[in-house]
Amino acid sequence: MKGWSNLSSNRTKLLSILLTSCIIVVIPWVLRGYPTLFLLQLAMNIAFAQSWNLCFSYAGLLSLGHALFVGIGGYSAVAICNGGIPIHISILVGAFISTFFAVVISPLFMRLRGVYFAIGTMILCSSFQYWFMHWTEAGRALGLRLRFYPEYSLESCYYFSWLVAFFATTLSWITVRSRLGLAARAVRDDVDRSEGIGVPSLLVRTVIFAISAFMAGMVGGVRVAYLLVVDPSVFSFELSLWATLAVVLGGAGTLIGPILGGALITLLQHVLMGLPEISMLITGIMLILIRLFLPGGLVSIIKKASLLLGVCRRWLLS
Amino acid sequence: MELAGDPMISPTLFLQLLFNGVLLGGLYALLGSGLSLCFGVMKFFNVLHGSLTLLSCYFTYSIFSLVGLDPLLTSLILIPAYFFLGFFLRRYLIGRLRTFDDILIVGFSLTIVLKNIVLFIWGARPRGVYTSYSMLAIGIIGDIRVPLIYLTCFTISLIGLISLHLILKKTFLGMAIRAVAQDPETASAFGVNPSLIKDLTFGISLSFIALSGTLMSTIYNFDPSLEVLFLIKAISVVVLGGLGSVLGTLVGGVVLGLAECFAGIAGAQYQAFVGAIIFLIIVLIKPKGLFGVYAE
Questions:
Q1: Residues of B numbered 42-81 whose beta carbons fall under 8 angstroms of chain A's beta carbons: which are they?
Q2: Residue A137 touches chain B, beta carbons under 8 Å
Q3: Looking at residue B265, which CATH number applies to its domain?
Q4: Tell me, what's the pLDDT at B288?
Q5: Which residues lie closer than 8 Å to A16 by C-beta, 6 or more apart?
Q6: CB contact (8 A) between residue A284 and residue B119
Q7: Is some CB atom of chain A closer than 8 A to the CB atom of B120?
Q8: How distant is the Cα of A140 from the closest Cα of chain B, in angstroms?
Q9: What is the DSSP string of B144-190?
Q10: In sequence order, which residues have a C-beta less than 8 Å from that of residue A243 and are 6 or more positions away?
Q11: Rounded-to-integer distance, Cα B120 and Cα A215, Å
Q12: Is B227 within a domain?
């Protein structure tokens, strides 16, 4: 966002946010069916990318099993909703269960550094996939279906998923700008030194991890609300990797990056929908190329472009 | 689960599991040795380990079903091929990555690329390599019978591990590798090119992957989802055995093999868990792993 400040004032920023919100609200009435579904998935990708970005860019936690929280959120939402609770409340409770789980595993996992954290989360997530695959109460490989859900409509899911996306972005924004965000960045840069100046690194990372898990749990709930079913493939490694791609593509360490990246990967997913192998192949190759040649993501291009634009404008005016 | 109905394990079953576990453990040690070498010398966690093993399985399958070449002879082709693959992969891609995040993200992207190449070429159907001797078994003591293929794989794994040990301890290359593992800068002051040594180490590591993949293909039915399992197995072996010695890797492999075989009593679905649980427990007790370095 910093790079944009020389181009746009706070008022134009606010105006553009309002305009976007209006467009988002109006779209399901104008474009029915497929475009609504597309934008719904876009919102979910944004929310998931924000969740991963908060963990990775601001607390330095490279989680490769973030789908774990989506899965837990999804499974709990279905289980609670089938008990007769309204879906929106179930999603919220599911997200809280996901958060609780993150807090429970934190004391153990936050001790892991670097590669062990990444591998540990990945292994935990795939263990959960095997577990749910063989757990009879969770429906084994078929998963759970939403049984009690009379008010289902694509539009309501659409609004709810955008609500989650806005919520995730705002929560990230607040977190990053708070004292907590500052402490998290200090811990990310050097754990030992930040401990030395009195930052409780375990607590800070746990809280960030929990907030991130809350967002991911919400995403899991919304996913269930429009798919009506949750199965063990929700824990798949590919799902975690989509978030990674969105953030790396858009630009890690910014708030606009995950939004851009989430939009782009949704486009990618839909364009390549008919060819699942090719789509993941392209995803992988893109990640490598971006990481090698464009480490700042798309945001860095936009920043450069806006700088260039500013220079041109000044040159024209003078 | 139904099998678990009988809580008593007869001595025959116990011994049978013991033999199977040890024999399988030798193979797991071979699988882990590549990762251990790679992490010990290059400080590079090769997340491609699982998918490259799987790819080697599929190559063996294709060569076996198209040409009819024996899987054990196929390894003679795959080992040099993998060596050069590793050499060039390290030199032109992995060597360029600087930060740890880059390495992990690019590594896992390559995993996805390899997995989908496998899916694209061979499909998701499980495959297996069935040779004329796949079904043979030889009796050892009393009722205990061991599949011939397990015994062969164990022997070859042992040969592989011993040769790795000899390479590291007796040759000039091994000395250079150990020097780079200890301190790359000092090694370069003595005329060793650390970058080249790392390229070669990665090549050696990959040729061990090729061998273990070939052997795995004769024992397991494999499908594209197995890559994560292979990776977890290799990591568990490394975490159990440490990086210090080839013997440690062998011990780690045997422990994992035994644990898997005995978990099979409770139900086949728990076997996949064992590696993951071992990894989690050990890493949670010792957050930095039980790692040493290839020093001495």
A1: 45, 47
A2: no
A3: 1.10.3470
A4: 57
A5: A8
A6: no
A7: yes
A8: 12
A9: -EEEHHHHHHHHHHHHHHHHHHHHHHHSHHHHHHHHHHH-HHHHHHT
A10: A45, A48, A49, A51, A52, A66
A11: 34
A12: yes
Structure tokens at B48: 């491609």
In chain A, residues 225-254 whose CB comes closer than 8 Å to chain B: 237-238, 241, 244, 248
Using the Cβ of B116 and the Cβ atoms of chain A, whether some distance falls under 8 Å is answered with yes
Residue A305: other Cβ atoms inside 10 A? 12
Q: Contacts of residue B104 in chain A, CB cutoff 8 Å?
A: 62, 64, 115, 118
Q: Has residue B4 been placed in a domain?
A: no
Q: Test B276 with A277 for CB contact under 8 angstroms.
A: no
Spatial CA neighbour of B134 closest among B143, B147, B145, B146: B147
Chain A to chain B, count of Cβ pairs less than 8 Å apart?
A: 101
Quick check: A250 and A262 in contact, CB under 8 A?
A: yes
ipTM: 0.78
So what's the pLDDT on residue A171?
A: 93
DSSP at A58: I
pLDDT value for B27: 92
For residue B75, being part of any structural domain is answered with yes
Q: Are B227 and A236 in contact (CB under 8 A)?
A: no
Strands A229-230 and B145-147: unpaired
Is B293 inside a domain boundary? no
The distance of Cα A159 from the centroid of its chain, to the nearest Å, equals 17
What's at A85, amino acid-wise?
Answer: I
Tokens found for residue B182: 């200890």
Cβ within 8 Å, pair B284-A108 = yes
Mutate to test the interface with A, among B125, B283, B285 (most CBs of A within 10 A): B283
User: A-chain residues within 8 Å CB-CB of B264?
Assistant: none
pLDDT, one tens digit per residue, over B184-208 is 888 888 888 989 999 999 999 999 9
Tell me if residue A228 falls in helix, strand or coil: coil
Total domain count, chain A: 1
Please indicate, yes or no, whether the overall pTM of this predicted structure exceeds 0.95. no
The CATH number of residue A212's host domain is 1.10.3470
Residue among B45, B116, B280 whose CB faces A124 most closely: B280
Give the other-Cβ count within 10 Å of A37's Cβ: 15
What total of structural domains would you count in chain B? 1
Test the A interface: residue of B45, B54, B108 with most A CBs within 10 Å: B108
* Domain hosting residue A190, numbered range: 2-317
Shortest distance, CA B284 to any CA of chain A (angstroms): 6
In A111-153, which residue ranges form alpha helices assigned H by DSSP?
115-134
pLDDT of residue B4: 47
Q: B173 is in which domain, residue-wise?
A: 9-285
- Our separate counts of H helices and E strands in chain A read 14, 2
Distance CA B198, CA B181 (A): 9
**pLDDT tens for each residue of A85-141:** 888 899 999 999 999 999 999 988 888 877 788 888 988 898 888 888 888 888 888
Do residues B194 and B187 touch, judged by C-beta distance below 8 A?
yes
B101 touches chain A (CB under 8 A): yes
